[in-house]
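# step 3/5: fold
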Amino acid sequence: MTVAKSDNMRMFEPSMPSAKRARKGRSRICRNSDENMDHDIWKALPEDLLESVIARLPIAAFFRFRLVCKKWNMLLSSQSFYREYAQKKQQSQPWFYMFTHHNLYMGSMYNSFSRRWYHPQPASLISDPTRLPVASAGGLICFLDCHDKSFYIYNPLTRSCKALPRQSIFVQSRISVGMTLNGHSQGYNVLWVGVEGVYEIYDSTKNEWSRPGKIPSTINLPLELNLKSQAVCINRTLYFIRTFPDGVVSYNMETGVWEQLDIPVPRHSSDQTLAECNGKIMLVGLLKKYSATCVCIWELQKMTLLWKEVDRMPNLWLFEFYGKHVKMTCLGNKGLLMLSLKSQRMNQLVTYDMTSQEWMKVTLGRKAKFISSGTAFLPCLTALP
């Protein structure tokens, strides 16, 4: 069966080594086996057995699977398949969902394990260019409308989307957003906080917002958070990086307690972003001194409340940035980062595995990409908004 490629599922892949030519005898054997295959056997395959086989496929295979026929596409949304898929081992390698300056109306996804790009057509609720990804938890991504501050929860694999109820109050100032899975159920929580210290929490199990109060007086106001850096979640605690004074602000979803840590950022650093690795709070940023620019990774020392450098970009790459004014956008989750580095004459995407300390350049498409917004997520077909 030949399936035409859909415009909504365009995909480009990095250059791969050419495969060896198949031997004539081997090709003849394959053709003969196909001709003698009884198609009625496959038509009679029980549906529960088919679901069990499909549930073991890698995540990337589901994009092609949906295009085979309507029946197979509908099978992926059946309750029996969800139960079968939930019993299998979940994807542990995060993917990246982003909008680029060359593609503001269609999101792009990158699978760092297979090094492939995907360009699915987004759901209509998030196709508005004012709605940007600001947080994620598991297989779900939280979108924020920059104009009316409305929220949307989206699964980029299934394209299922949900608009959250309106908040009880409207905040005109810019807000920071964090998202975490609910520890007691299969739901999730979304927290937004404004510079004046007002905040609200959404509970998906109740489908409503709650307003616990205002940030305590022990937290310095106005709350000037780094909006380019997304919140990091560790054990149901959300961490935000603040710009003045330098430090980290956290909120514990279980206890409802806010805390503030005054931590000076490393000297000569810029474009700082929080990340996490094995439960540790990490900092990613550019280190600029004289004409040299380098990407550095720091780890927060809990005893001294100082940032300790643990790694930096390979020396051979530093010459590409020498004497250039570089800007960095960073996405990070579960120890894996994607860095978008841009200057007037340079545009690079780099992934960094904080566990193995491996740096890798990302193959770009026909047009060079610079991330305008995005987040990392764990691909999951059964994650429901």
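# step 4/5: annotate
The longest strand covers residues 280-289.
# step 5/5: archive (pending)
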